[in-house]
Structure to design on (437 residues):
């Protein structure tokens, strides 16, 4: 313990004497940790069980794609290809997903990317205020799968949330809006439940609920305007697994259903894409079908963020060790063991790494706060129609993320230090001492 304190004091003294080396080392470590933490925070915010997506670890997403059968390939030009994404009918949703044995809860929804293409805008009855919003169609279970907090009103009932073909397009539809939209339209402190809004094609909406605004980082649950799922709107099914069930249970249950559907349809052959929440987030926008593909896609980013700075630090340590060879030669001549000298060098570099980690933590917060829009849209693959992402406290201040990022960088720095230090300490005593001349 006494030796460790001595080594730490020597490291602090060395930092004062070699300010340039210490500054470069701390800056390199800080940037490596900062960029690593930025990526870690982005993926943590997309993958961890965070409000309102508290069931991410048990969530499975199902989408449907239909391929033209061989005898109907002449329709390729009409459909722009031999396949197209298909929606789930209300009948399939009720029979396949609501009754799924391995599902604790299942919900249907549309993607914001597709809803936003319709340029949804809300306006008050007098037409004075017009506000573009991110809209999605959902059923009643959506607000059970995703834990949105209601400020006013209520969620959809089971009958309201999933409209069949006969119930579709009512004269006045019901809607749930977010609090930020309500405040822009009606002012702060006003309960808008029961008020009427106009939107797409002059249709009327009656507000039945208002939810607290959520971050667009939680892209699968995010929205500013929620309407009931009408016939043919459901593009994705969300399944929350029961305890003890796996994603394979969902696949096995749906295989027989899809087989019977393919037997009855002469024109199209249907395929279901089933993936976990993590796979959906990690592979969005890329053709990544397995965890191996995802790992290989992330490997270059990890290489650039960690190994390149490590090589630079290794060169700095090697140059510094060359200058200290005479000192090491003298200490070995007076009986110092190679292990003791190596321990001192490791402690010195760990002190520098700790300083770099603290500086990197501050840089991380600054990057995530100042450049949050760019960071989360570039790395997090948010839908382009969403507003600037709200970064919540549990995303910013995660001790686990900092600890993991720091340990990873500490290990990389340790390896960058050990190699040149070990090679330098292998020099014979006489040769090391002669370098002082």
């Amino acid at each position: 313990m006494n030796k460790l304190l001595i080594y730490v004091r020597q490291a602090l003294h060395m930092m004062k004497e070699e300010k340039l080396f210490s500054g470069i080392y701390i800056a390199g470590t800080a940037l490596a940790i900062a960029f690593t933490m930025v990526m870690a925070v982005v993926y943590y915010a997309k993958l961890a069980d965070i409000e309102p997506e508290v069931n991410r670890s048990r969530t499975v997403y199902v989408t449907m794609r239909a391929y033209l059968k061989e005898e109907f390939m002449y329709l390729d030009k009409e459909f722009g290809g031999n396949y197209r994404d298909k929606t789930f009918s209300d009948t399939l949703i009720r029979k396949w997903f609501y009754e799924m044995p391995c599902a604790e809860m299942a919900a249907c929804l549309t993607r914001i990317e597709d809803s936003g293409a319709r340029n949804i805008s809300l306006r008050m009855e007098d037409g004075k205020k017009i506000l573009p919003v991110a809209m999605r169609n959902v059923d009643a279970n959506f607000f059970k799968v995703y834990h949105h907090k209601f400020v006013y009103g209520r969620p959809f009932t089971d009958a309201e949330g999933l409209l069949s073909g006969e119930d579709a397009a009512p004269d006045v539809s019901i809607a749930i809006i977010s609090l930020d939209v309500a405040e822009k339209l009606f002012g702060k402190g006003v309960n808008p439940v029961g008020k009427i809004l106009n939107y797409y094609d002059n249709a009327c909406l009656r507000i039945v609920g208002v939810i607290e605004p959520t971050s667009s980082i939680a892209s699968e649950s995010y929205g500013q305007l929620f309407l009931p799922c009408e016939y043919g709107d459901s593009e994705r099914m969300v399944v929350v697994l029961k305890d003890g069930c796996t994603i394979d249970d969902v696949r096995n249950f749906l295989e027989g259903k899809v087989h019977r559907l393919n037997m009855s349809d002469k024109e199209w052959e249907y395929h279901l894409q089933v993936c976990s929440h993590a796979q959906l987030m990690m592979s969005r926008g890329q053709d990544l079908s397995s965890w191996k593909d995802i790992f290989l896609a992330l490997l270059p980013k990890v290489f650039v963020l960690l190994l390149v700075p490590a090589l630079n630090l290794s060169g700095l340590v090697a140059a510094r060790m060359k200058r200290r060879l005479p000192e090491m030669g003298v200490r070995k001549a007076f009986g110092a063991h190679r292990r003791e000298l190596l321990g001192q060098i490791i402690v010195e570099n760990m002190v520098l790494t700790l300083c770099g980690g603290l500086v990197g933590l501050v840089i991380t917060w600054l990057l995530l706060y100042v450049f949050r829009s760019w960071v989360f849209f570039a790395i997090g693959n948010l839908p382009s129609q969403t507003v600037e992402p709200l970064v919540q406290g549990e995303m910013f201040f995660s001790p686990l993320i900092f600890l993991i990022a720091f340990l990873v960088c500490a290990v990389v720095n340790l390896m960058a230090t050990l190699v040149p230090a070990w090679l330098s300490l292998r020099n014979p005593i006489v040769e090391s001492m002669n370098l002082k001349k």
In short: The chain has a mean pLDDT of 76. The chain has two domains: 2-51+290-434, 70-266. The first helix runs from residue 2 to 17. The two ends are 36 Å apart (CA to CA).
